[in-house]
């Protein structure tokens, strides 16, 4: 039987890679970015920045970004294609909104079904003029404006992308912009801004609410950025090591931002033998190694209050749940319906297909762990969703390679080296 053995360095973090590019483009001067994730999503952001007049070049393994300042985007000649990337679309909408330019945003079929009004409703209130398909979708045209109103925004949905879009807009707004989140979300934008010495206030309010206060316009001085390794990409190998008997691995230099590693807490609660060794800080983010070995897992209940910090890891947590003793319930998953695929449906359909008992009710998902044998090939429907494809590729290792993922190409969206890294860890004896 296959097992995982050895040490691995995972590719750069996707969320930080987008932000490193955007914030260096909005800085003044040259930024060197190392360990940038060169995935399709990140390349969508990079190409859009180039179309907006930002000079970006690669020299050996380093990316050089020549920033034009917070007010430096020029009007593009062609539509800005966000491909499959929700982060690109939402963050770039915010970034261009406070520049005096017109931009058309387009995306692929999946992205064109994902909500954009969650960002544009705020930008419109500030004064951007937006023509949007069916009130919610790409393609859309935005007329940005240098005198957007400084305002107080309350964000109702737990989404780091909405918050980040508003922060990026505020960098070129004259006056005080306040952004209140009722549920805290991933905080990479704030951390990178602090690293870049941008002066803003972060206040903790009652009931875990937070307020970010920015006083624009800002001039950001460029500073070189190193991107730490992606914990969400690491999660596939963490779960692989937990479920493949006799496995033991070390994943090096992983970003340990608390808003990103909640999945490790859940897996530990399930009985996972996981050790975290914090070692340093890279550009405002804690970084360290994760050591994982095969473990007997048990089912747990995951409350909806954890969902914003587990948002990308539910597919692979579902795979862990199939091997756990008893029932695992994941609550409050509504936001999963708005990802690259409807992930509640994608997980449910594929687990049922391979013979796992799974229940779905009111956006809660219950998975009943059970030992099954798979005798003939089963096609796994990825729904062109990279995280679904990678999750079932991990489960496949346990079932003698009988699970055939229909489209492995979509993995390039977030982790082009996934297959290579998987093969590096696989050991047969
Ligand atoms: C991301 C935020 C999350 C996450 C996505 C990346 C980001 O989306 O699912 O993969 O980089 O800000 P939401 O904030 O919309 O939940």
What does this structure look like?
The chain has 429 residues and is of the alpha/beta class. The chain has 2 domains: 14-226, UDP-n-acetylglucosamine1-carboxyvinyl-transferase, Chain (Alpha-beta prism), CATH 3.65.10.10; 228-427, Alpha-beta prism (UDP-n-acetylglucosamine1-carboxyvinyl-transferase, Chain). It is built from 12 helices and 24 strands. Bound molecules: shikimate-3-phosphate (S3P). Shikimate-3-phosphate is lined by residues 15, 87, 159-161, 164, 185-186, 311-312, 335.
Write the layout of secondary structure elements.
Blueprint: E1 3-9, H1 14-25, E2 27-34, H2 40-51, E3 55-59, E4 62-68, E5 80-81, H3 86-97, E6 102-106, H4 117-126, E7 129-133, E8 137-143, E9 152-155, H5 160-170, E10 175-181, H6 188-195, E11 200-204, E12 210-216, E13 220-221, E14 225-226, H7 231-243, E15 248-255, H8 262-269, E16 273-282, E17 285-293, E18 301-302, H9 314-322, E19 327-330, H10 343-354, E20 357-361, E21 364-368, E22 378-380, H11 386-398, E23 403-405, H12 418-425, E24 426-427
Bound molecules: shikimate-3-phosphate (S3P).
Shikimate-3-phosphate (S3P) binds next to helix 5.
């Amino acid at each position: 039987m296959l097992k995982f053995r050895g040490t691995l360095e995972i590719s750069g973090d996707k969320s930080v890679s987008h932000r490193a590019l955007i914030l260096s483009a909005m800085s003044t001067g040259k930024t060197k970015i190392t360990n940038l994730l060169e995935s399709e999503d990140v390349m969508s952001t990079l190409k859009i920045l180039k179309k907006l007049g930002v000079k970006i070049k690669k020299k050996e393994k380093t990316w050089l970004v020549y920033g034009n300042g917070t007010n430096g985007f020029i009007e593009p000649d062609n539509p800005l294609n966000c491909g499959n990337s929700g982060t690109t679309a939402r963050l770039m909408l915010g970034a261009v909104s406070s520049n005096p330019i017109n931009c058309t945003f387009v995306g692929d079929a999946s992205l064109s079904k994902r909500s954009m009004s969650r960002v544009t409703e705020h930008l419109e209130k500030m004064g951007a003029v937006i023509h949007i398909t069916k009130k919610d979708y790409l393609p859309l045209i935005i007329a940005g404006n240098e005198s957007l109103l400084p305002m107080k925004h309350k964000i109702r949905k737990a989404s780091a992308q909405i918050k980040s879009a508003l922060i990026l807009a505020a960098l070129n707004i004259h006056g005080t912009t306040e952004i209140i989140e009722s549920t805290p979300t991933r905080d990479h934008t704030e951390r990178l801004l602090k690293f870049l010495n941008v002066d803003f206030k972060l206040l903790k309010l009652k009931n875990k609410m937070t307020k970010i206060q920015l006083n624009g316009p800002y001039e950001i001085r460029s500073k070189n950025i190193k991107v730490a390794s992606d914990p969400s990409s690491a999660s596939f190998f963490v779960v692989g090591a937990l479920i493949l008997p006799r496995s033991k691995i070390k994943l090096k230099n992983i970003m340990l931002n608390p808003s990103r590693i909640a999945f490790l807490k859940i897996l530990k609660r399930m009985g996972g033998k996981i050790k975290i060794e914090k070692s340093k800080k890279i550009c405002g983010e804690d970084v360290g190694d994760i050591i994982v070995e095969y473990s007997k897992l048990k089912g747990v209940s995951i409350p909806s209050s954890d969902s914003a910090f587990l948002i990308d890891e539910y597919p692979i947590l579902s795979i862990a749940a199939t091997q756990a003793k008893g029932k695992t319930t994941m609550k409050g998953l509504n936001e999963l319906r708005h990802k690259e695929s409807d992930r509640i449906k994608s997980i449910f359909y594929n687990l049922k297909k391979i013979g796992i008992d799974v229940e779905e009710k009111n956006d809660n998902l219950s998975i009943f762990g059970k030992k099954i044998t798979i005798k003939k090939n089963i096609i796994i429907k990825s729904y062109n969703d990279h995280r679904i494809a990678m999750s079932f590729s991990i489960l496949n290792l346990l079932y003698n390679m009988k699970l055939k993922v229909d489209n492995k190409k979509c993995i390039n969206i977030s982790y082009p080296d996934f297959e290579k890294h998987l093969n590096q860890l696989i050991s047969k004896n």
